[in-house]
């Protein structure tokens, strides 16, 4: 099964930036659309950014204009550039395939995620 390893999280001040990376164990980015998700304490996991196999992107309103999703198929790596961070962005960030026919309309196995903490 494909595995994901997220990295790049950390503690930053409001207004700071982080670049998250998602390494996939297989070459799947040409097969699956991909997304970055986040989960804050006591909240459901939410999709914040998505990228299709042909590099079309979409963002949640809460991060639009601040976050940029990208991927490098050859490196099996996806990225999330996070600028102008706010305390509300504090969460564990995960990557996964978007539900589609290719994955039976379910996410693949979740990784451990990477913690992003934004201080006031």
What would you call the shape? Answer: globular
Mean of pLDDT = 97
Oligomer: single chain
Please describe the biggest sheet, giving its number of strands, its sense, and whether it closes into a barrel: 6 strands, mixed
Percent helix range: under 10%
Count, helices: 0
Kindly report the spatial arrangement of strands forming the biggest sheet.
Answer: 2-10-9-4-5-6
How many individual β-strands?
10
Uncertain spans:
none
Structural category: mainly beta
Radius of gyration: 13 Å
Distance from N terminus to C terminus (CA atoms, Å) equals 39 Å
SSE ordering: EEEEEEEEEE
Strand content: over 45%
Word description of this protein:
By secondary structure, the chain is mainly β. 0% of the residues lie in helices and 46% in strands. The protein contains no helices and ten strands. The chain has strands at residues 4-7, 10-13, 18-24, 34-39, 46-51, 57-59, 67-72, 77-82, 91-97, 114-119. It has a six-stranded mixed beta sheet with strand order 2-10-9-4-5-6, with no helix packed on it. It has a four-stranded antiparallel beta sheet with strand order 1-3-8-7, with no helix packed on it. Strand 7 (67-72) and strand 8 (77-82) form a beta hairpin. The radius of gyration is 13 Å and the shape is globular.
Task: Based on the model shown, name its key terms.
six-stranded mixed beta sheet; mainly beta; 120 residues; four-stranded antiparallel beta sheet; 10 strands
